[in-house]
Amino acid sequence: MSISASSIEEAISQIDQLFGVDEAFLCKATSHFLSSMDAGLTNEVPTKAYMPMLPTFVTSIPTGEEKGLFLAADLGGTNFRVCSIDLKGDHTFDLKQSKFPVPQDLMKGSTSDALFSFLASKVKEFLGEHHDELDESVTLKMGFTFSFPVDQSALDRGKLIRWTKGFDLPDCVGRDVVEYFQKHIDILKAPVLITALANDTVGTLLSRSYANDVSISKATTLIGAIFGTGTNGAYFESITNIPKLSGLTIPEATTGMVINMEWGSFDNSLEILPCTKYDLIVDKETSNKGYHLFEKRISGMFLGEILRVVLMDLFEQGLIFVDLYRSRNNTLPHRLQEPFLLSSKVLSYLEIDDSTDLKIISLSDPLAAIVKRVKDQYANDPNDFEVGCDGSLIEHYPGFKEKILEAFDLIGPLKGSSKKLKIRIAKDGSGVGAALCASTVKD
């Protein structure tokens, strides 16, 4: 049976309408995003109704004049990375690094003491290889990027909420990971003090702020953002706008604090986000059903899967892949049949991904909301605003920046102002950013 071109075009048109995002929606979503920010900054207990808006206890933004040698340790998966970053004080730095695979038997079925003893040994090994010239009286400050959910109560304090990414060491849950790590560093007598528990998104904001020479760029770094496998943002908020800090002891001189927004959790209650049948299918395939619903609609980890689900729907309607299916003895390629095997990279090779483009422009909502929220704080700043970004989507997806900025202008948070928003690449938030976190702690 032949398939008419009109049948295919009609089906694709219906899919485009499902993913449609217009100017009215963008403005409505931006308003809802602002409300979610306010609720998250006020309420200590996170719910589906608003974003977590996590205080980081980072209370200053780099100027580019910072100097000194700092360490960064990064545990986010099967590899452990140790870096030294020599900040030159002129927006530049020298970086040395080593990567160490984490043995599988330390990731689960072991103890936290065994894991952190291993990590501490690699920090000491790194120092022996790259910095054996250090004076014995020198203690290096280190930022620790720990890419697992933590309840952070100070810059250098954070209790593990749960393990992810293949780790399962129950004795560490509810314990302070900095305390664990420092204990084993001290046992080895390594001259290292962990002064900051870092986050890669916060690190992206700090690393771009350090690298940004405002006298040349004419732009103030306002936001750090990840647009990659996942998505998240961080920005500097006035301390008076963070009511949930009221029960904590904050130095009187503190004027603001970097907030880790966890914006992948925006609108988990689905009050505003579009919800197609394809989004429901993808959500059911995940281990955290009903959570991170914004991220599941627009991040690199999920765009390829959304495309796969759409293609399989069209196939089941008998509209595509019919001849391919027959030629393969009634089977389809496994990348089409198995969830999450169709990489989002495929989209960057195609010029027929309009429906995905419609999803991506939704990423302008958080940027517009943040600019609306804080622009009055920068009323006397003559410079433009910039977003420091990291991640595979921002680096490799064709036209990504242009689509975001076009939608941002539609929302118009800077209407009536001469300022513009610029998007810049910020590299290595988990390394350079963590070191900059550590550098904020005074002796």
From TrEMBL:
GO cellular component: cytosol; mitochondrion
One example of a Gene Ontology biological process annotation: glycolytic process
Keyword Transferase appears in the UniProt entry: yes
Signal sequence interval, chain numbering: none
Domain Hexokinase N-terminal: from-to ranges: 12-210
Keywords assigned by UniProt, alphabetized: ATP-binding, Glycolysis, Kinase, Nucleotide-binding, Transferase
Pfam family, one: Hexokinase_2
InterPro entries attached to this UniProt entry: ATPase_NBD, Hexokinase, Hexokinase_BS, Hexokinase_C, Hexokinase_N
EC category name: transferase
Stretches assigned to coiled coil: none
Occurrences of domain Hexokinase C-terminal (ranges): 223-360, 367-439
GO MF terms held by the record: ATP binding; D-glucose binding; fructokinase activity; glucokinase activity
Family: Belongs to the hexokinase family.
Protein name in the entry: Phosphotransferase
Lineage of the species this protein comes from: Eukaryota, Fungi, Dikarya, Ascomycota, Saccharomycotina
